[in-house]
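pasting for the record
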Amino acid sequence: MRHVARMRGAASYPVNTADQLRRLEYAKGVVSFENELVNVPKAEITDSPITKKFLDYVVPSAKAEAWLTKQRLIRDDRPIVSGLLSFSEELQAAMPKRCGVKIYRYKTKEAEGFRDVLAGDPKTIEGCLYEQIRSAVATTVKITESIPRMGLGGLEKIQYPKETLHEIIANEKHFWEDGRCWHD
């Protein structure tokens, strides 16, 4: 039996459960959540209109299942997390509470927001990753541009470059793209 411990400062804490061991493996980069199998049929991504649209744009001659398998997005007749994130229409049904975007707006000058200064209800954005990123950018632009700031000539409209927001949100969602916009 192996003894596994997690170091925190000079102290050593035992890792006793399978869940603790899996979290340690994620934290140390030994395994990646994106490569985990999801317990849904492969048809969730092979028959998806998102997959069809992507393949029509990027690899028109490819068959969905063969291409997804070659890209290692399907393993043991099931999709992996990254395949589901990229190509599932009903992503949140397969992985609830693990793959949406929440956008909060706080009315405060503090560095951190808190519930008492929350401006309205948080916005929830769902869908495949591309749609989440596209919608999150559009929602953030709309919110940002509705906030005036004091300038030399009085109140001015805030403008934030969409490309910058896209980079920030895409990097946060760990999303890849090659510069081509196959959804538009």
